[in-house]
Amino acid sequence: MLDLNSSYSYLLWCRDFADTSVIARIDGEPAGFITGYTRPENPDTLMIWQVAVNENFRGHGLASTMLHELADRTGALRMETTITDDNAASNRLFQAFAEKRGAGFDRRPLFTPDLYPDGHDTEYLYEIAPL
């Protein structure tokens, strides 16, 4: 299993956001997925919600391949995501994505710990454009 979130939520996501999400299978086995959506108030912006790669398939560029596939498929002009400081793999993934696309890269705090009831770390908004 790639993630412990509710299977129901993933079924809804697959129904409602299939065009802005991707799953990778290797030899029939789920190897990774990315969930995303276009921002309702800014439909040319692809917001990446979640990136997950099965530990058996990490280190081969699968996350990057899926990210580029979604950007190309959706025709988005901009990409956003949020990442905490301690998520080194995601920080590298999105920085490398921006560099490969020759896109601008901006990072700023979006949701700070005072907004969370559980002491969650700051989520930094990454804005990558133009794609």
UniProtKB/TrEMBL annotation:
Pathway: Amine and polyamine biosynthesis; ectoine biosynthesis; L-ectoine from L-aspartate 4-semialdehyde: step 2/3. Its EC number is 2.3.1.178. It is an enzyme of class 2 (transferase). It comes from the Bacteria. InterPro entries: Acyl_CoA_acyltransferase (IPR016181), Ectoine_EctA (IPR012772), GNAT_dom (IPR000182). Residues 1-129 form the N-acetyltransferase domain. It catalyses: L-2,4-diaminobutanoate + acetyl-CoA = (2S)-4-acetamido-2-aminobutanoate + CoA + H(+). Keywords: Acyltransferase, Transferase. NCBIfam families: ectoine_EctA. Belongs to the acetyltransferase family. EctA subfamily. This is L-2,4-diaminobutyric acid acetyltransferase. It comes from Brevibacterium sediminis. The lineage of its organism: Bacteria, Bacillati, Actinomycetota, Actinomycetes, Micrococcales. The gene is ectA.
